[in-house]
Amino acid sequence: MRARNLIATFVSAAMVIPIGPAQAGIRQAQVVSANPSGRTPHVLDGIVNALALVGDTVVVGGEFSLVRNVGSTTELRRPNLFAFDLRTGRIDPGFAPRMDGPVFALASGAGGTVYAGGAFTRGLVRLDLADGAPVRSFTGATYGGEVSSLVRRGDQLYVGGDFTQIARATRPALARLNATTGAVDPTFTVTPGGGETKITAMAASHDRLVVDGSFTTLDGLPRPQLGVIDLTTGKVADWRTDAYAPECLAVFPSYVRGLDLSPDGSYFVVVTTGGPAPRTRKLCDTAARFETYAKGEGIRPTWVNHTGGDSLYSVAVTGAAVYVGGHQRWLDNPYGSDTAGQGAVSRPGIGAIHPSTGKALDWNPTRARGIGVKAFLPVKNGLLVGSDTTRLGGEYHARVGLFPMP
């Protein structure tokens, strides 16, 4: 972006929709193909914010109204939520819930169900994939704000956002529910605080929950924008970094966005917006790796990859690669300030980073940049991508695409 448009663009980006959830689990032995599959359906307007896989059904959430099967001219009305078959790419004709507001987060449920969170009536619902009807025994509605992140771990559902109440219990921004009934778990009371409190993204392993967002404390302990919760105790872990304490541009009082855990849960990667900060230790417009089981104060990232002034919104860690998406033009760009600095590599809209070295991999399918990638979902046969643009890998793939395994 040109310098005269910098502030206007950053203000616009600051108001865009937050990122969907992530959960450790899918390990891939190699980097996916740069040639997208030709089977995925098209989302004809708006933006895709979240993806979930239930069996062989992909559920897609966002802020849109119309979808279409590949090879068809028939437009199907699907306000903010629809599903398609991962194997064939065909849109599910029976799953057509009428969501009256944007969907920001999805999580797979047991028994052919999916959880959806966002800024619609009730804020959080569990839906039957057979017909899109709400599961009425699930009572986890939110009040006073929206849901921006969901993670299911067995019979527990973690919910993050900027709500003040959930299931009629006071739980600012973060709660753990019974995944079947929606009842609040009274034994989990970790409370974010400071500023306009909001959980932006979460990821879970068998014993850790990593959260980021607009907060400065967790249970009163200093945790600027990022923290780790020990799920064996339900308490904030002895893990603290001040890496996100420094300010970026003033229009980004909070600048962390997506995060994802490695398949074995040993490390996680956080992506950010914030504005260019060349030749500094600030983590504005970066992807950064942290070790999950590090302990103590002053934890620093293992590596940092800078875009040089463009936002990253979503990340997926598969073992073979760390996939990042936003409206970036470059990676490996610590010396750039809205420019390609020394060593920068072109990675428009989407890219992949080596998990150990933190350097960009050769994988470079390209994507029309727009606002950016808002959702990744690694699956056994590839990597699903959700965004707001229609060109992926040099081909027409409107807002949803799949990079298959080679």
TrEMBL record:
What the entry lists under InterPro entries is as follows: Delta_60_rpt, Quinoprotein_ADH-like_sf
What's one Pfam family the UniProt record gives for this protein? DUF5122
* Name of the protein in its database record: PKD domain containing protein
The organism of origin for this protein: Acrocarpospora corrugata
